[in-house]
């Protein structure tokens, strides 16, 4: 591991013959990876039950919209302003036909370098990653398809596989729902197996509808027509939402009499906030809360300059109690607890300018939350500062989390860095470019990982004594 407080990335870029934008960015150089930053395979862990699509929708809106767009059509603001390459439309169904949910889950977990997709294995739980995976996978299915598929399934499949596809004594639950693409699942239904007859009388459309139903059954479907009928037939219940606040810092204490907020979020992402006080033993409780399957719940607390949150839990019919524990941490402003684990830079060039987009992944090695010393406006503080290269102009990505210094030389991140979770920073800037340029960028925190450089313009050549060329 490099022990330098500051690492300087020096690249010489020469435009040998500008051929326009390449279709897929080429990974042209990389700094050797440390053992801690090596790619790990996705654990062979499949969900025991169908992931909850409402949870997936919240995860998506919280973490993915700026790249993939509000409706997941690949038209997020970072795509529209050219900072990342065009992305797929999850609503089209083309990728669902070609690849399985477990392949999508692997991308969510480990990221995809060539499209600047960061890994979410450290930021999202296994449950949250499966939820957002299946939420995106299900976007290609219409309510009409799901409803038609349920009718066919109940008439032709439920007797053996069970009303909700969970299995009976006659046949097990539907197998391979996560491991097969839509095309592979369609072939299985049409051709059968040694233990299941071939459904040769089903049309291609009917098979597609059955698959749509199987992908969403029991998953809190956001748009199922049959679900709307159930909503009217079964009344939501009043219940209790409670939790315990613990301090994850060894020298920490449990705050007394602090405000805990319960955020109730509906399917349209409208929010209601209810408040209570923390008890002396660190517990909190909200009574007589309407636990509706159309709502999700998350608890937050503000402590020592930072917000701390529970997991997001969707409601369900018959649910009368939800547990929302919160872990908070004591603050620190000691930068020695930080490590840069990975830097991925994508470079585009035209005749006059060079555009650089970076994803910087940091880790907080301590058991304290890292916050900055300088307050901007409550509750924002300058947490991290990254100097821009000389003559660089900051690309505003429209996220209020980031600020630019008055002199235009530093990009400032206001988000606190939690312990043991990847902290991802998006950074973009342009440089004047007349055929060649030297890019010298300082990284002000200890570096312990990999640097990847991707070229998005044909004809650009990189020269560097620090990076190793690939291919």
Describe the structure.
The chain is of the alpha+beta class and 471 residues long. The protein folds into three domains: 7-38 and 333-469, no CATH class; 143-222, Cytochrome Bc1 Complex, Chain D, domain 2; 236-331, Immunoglobulins (Immunoglobulin-like, Sandwich), CATH 2.60.40.10. The chain contains eleven helices and 26 strands. The protein has helices spanning 53-63, 65-68, 77-80, 94-98, 101-110, 126-138, 143-156, 158-161, 182-191, 204-216, 225-233, and strands at residues 7-15, 21-30, 237-247, 259-266, 271-277, 283-291, 295-303, 306-309, 313-314, 321-323, 326-328, 331-332, 338-349, 353-364, 369-370, 374-377, 380-382, 384-387, 393-394, 402-404, 410-413, 423-432, 436-443, 447-457, 460-463, 468-469. A seven-stranded mixed beta sheet has the order 19-22-14-13-24-2-26, with no helix packed on it. Strands 4, 5, 7, 8 and 9 form a five-stranded antiparallel beta sheet that branches. The longest helix is centred in the N-terminal third of the chain and has 14 residues, at 143-156. It is flat and about 70 Å long.
């Amino acid at each position: 591991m490099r022990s330098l407080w500051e690492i300087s990335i020096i690249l010489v870029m020469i435009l040998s013959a500008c051929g326009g934008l390449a279709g897929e960015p080429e990974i042209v150089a990389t700094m050797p990876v440390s053992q801690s930053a090596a790619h790990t395979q996705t654990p062979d862990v499949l969900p025991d039950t169908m992931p909850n699509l409402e949870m997936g929708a919240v995860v998506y809106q919280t973490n993915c919209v700026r790249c993939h767009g509000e409706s997941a059509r690949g038209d997020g603001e970072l795509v529209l302003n050219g900072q990342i390459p065009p992305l797929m439309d999850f609503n089209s169904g083309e990728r669902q036909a070609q690849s399985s949910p477990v392949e999508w889950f692997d991308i969510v977990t480990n990221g995809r370098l060539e499209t600047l997709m960061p890994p979410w294995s450290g930021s999202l739980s296994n449950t949250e990653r499966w939820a957002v995976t299946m939420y995106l996978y299900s976007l290609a299915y219409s309510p009409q398809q799901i409803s038609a598929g349920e009718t066919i399934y109940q008439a032709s499949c439920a007797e053996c596989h069970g009303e909700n596809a969970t299995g009976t004594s006659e046949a097990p639950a539907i197998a391979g729902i996560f491991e097969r693409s839509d095309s592979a699942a369609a072939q299985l239904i049409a051709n059968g197996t040694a233990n299941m007859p071939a459904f040769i009388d089903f049309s291609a459309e009917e098979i597609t509808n059955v698959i749509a139903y199987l992908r969403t059954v029991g998953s809190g479907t956001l748009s199922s027509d049959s679900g709307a009928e159930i909503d009217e037939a079964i009344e939501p219940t009043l219940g209790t939402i409670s939790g315990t606040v613990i301090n994850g810092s060894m020298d920490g204490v449990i705050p007394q009499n602090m405000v805990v907020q319960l955020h109730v979020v509906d399917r349209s992402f409208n929010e209601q906030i209810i408040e209570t006080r923390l008890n002396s033993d660190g517990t909190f409780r909200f009574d007589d809360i309407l636990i509706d399957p159309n709502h999700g719940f998350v608890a937050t607390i503000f402590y020592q300059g930072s917000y701390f949150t529970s997991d997001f839990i969707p409601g369900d019919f018959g649910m009368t109690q939800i547990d929302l524990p919160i872990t908070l941490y004591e603050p620190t402003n000691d930068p020695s607890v930080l490590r840069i684990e990975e830097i991925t830079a994508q470079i585009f060039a035209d005749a006059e300018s060079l555009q650089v987009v970076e994803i910087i992944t940091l880790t907080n090695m301590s058991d304290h939350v890292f916050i900055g010393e300088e307050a901007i406006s409550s509750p924002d503080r300058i947490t991290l500062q990254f100097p821009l290269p000389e003559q660089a102009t900051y690309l505003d990505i429209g996220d209020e989390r980031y600020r630019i210094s008055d002199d235009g030389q530093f990009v400032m991140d206001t988000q606190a860095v939690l312990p043991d979770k990847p902290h991802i920073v998006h950074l973009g800037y342009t440089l004047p470019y007349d055929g060649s340029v030297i890019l010298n960028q300082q990284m002000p925190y200890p570096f312990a990982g990999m640097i990847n450089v991707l070229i998005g313009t044909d004809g650009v050549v990189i020269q560097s004594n620090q990076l190793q060329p690939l291919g």
